[in-house]
Amino acid sequence: MKKQDILILYLSTSSLESDVIGWARHFGDKKKIGMPGDNDSPPYERGIEAIHDGWKLFQTSQLEQHAKGDEYRTGYLKYEFFFEKIQ
Amino acid sequence: MNKNKQNNYLLTDYQMAEFVSKGYLMFENIIDNKTNKKFLKEIGHTSSALNKKNKNQSWLNEHYDSIMKTSKIPLVKAGTPLKKAYTKDSALKDVISNPILSGAIKSLVGSKSKLDHHFLHITFPSKYYNKGQQKLSQGNHNDCVIDPREKTFDIQLFYFPTAVDKKMGGTRYIPGSHFRMVNEFAIARYHNIKGQKHVICPAGTVIIFHHNIWHGAGVNNSDKIRYAFKIRLMPAERQIKLWTENSFKNTDNEEPLYWNNGNKKNSVREILQKTEPWFEADSGRLDIMNRIRLWRHLTNDKNFDAAYWLTRIENDFK
Predict the structure, then answer these.
(1) What is the pTM of this model?
(2) Domains of chain B with CATH codes
């Protein structure tokens, strides 16, 4: 049975060409575990390298207009990209 | 640290700027071994207990309950002044009375700070958990719900009475994340963030965190119990010039922007503008602006700026 692996990347801008600043891995194989703090080095330097390595992009975050009065408040990481590999 | 006229330690301007910028200050090995041992004795620590063969999930839970019921850590009501929280002869009184730590507390939240809560975090070696209940590391989170305060902040002291090595899975934290307004474990999806750090320290280390910093506990892959005693403190006064006893003035000069001689000086402005490896290209700039806003508040100087970040957008002829 083929299973889905998930890669989540957070990038420094909305461009897939920009640097990876955050990441998470999840595995279809239940013997493998991806957990917080499991690696201090990103799997790729830039987002596009995941595509070069065979990951299929299936979701990205939207660019949203800044709410009036809240333009300078920072919060969640903005540029989220979801990839999958079926293997 | 600086000493005031009464010979008490206070944070330096650079240390304050570092706290504003990074959201934490680390004091390695400042609590002496005698106090560390006293604390471990008071909580009923016993390393030999872990050598027994009957370790399992229920034993660990019972052991934790036992420590909570029998240790000398006092039950303290929220809002109790820190000065009254611990008895004279206790190890925790010795910890908070350490002159460097006491000076840092005074510098950040004042001399009238109150205890919100305290807690002894105990992380047992993962191999003692039942089969099939493999311990996972804790997700990233901050220790609050959505906290809208932009100027006032609480601090959390993390006291490590034993050395923490890499295998012990010390607290993971994200420098510079304290201005990000998120809601607790909503950020658990962020498994790894570039520039994340893990506590590795000698016994007697205390880290003071801004209450909003992102963090999470690691898995303990060693044979030793890992302890972290946390004390959350809230200020009882406006946090203005507390580390300088009201004598501070922003005096270092602003250098020309971008086109300059490249001779960067170690200054408050430089510290406030240091980016983190995980900063987005756009939001990271906003984090720097928020640091400058907090520095304006702490120094009561509405005109302070670094690299014109705020002055530029305030030059508005309405």
Answers:
(1) 0.94
(2) 2-234 (2.60.120.620)
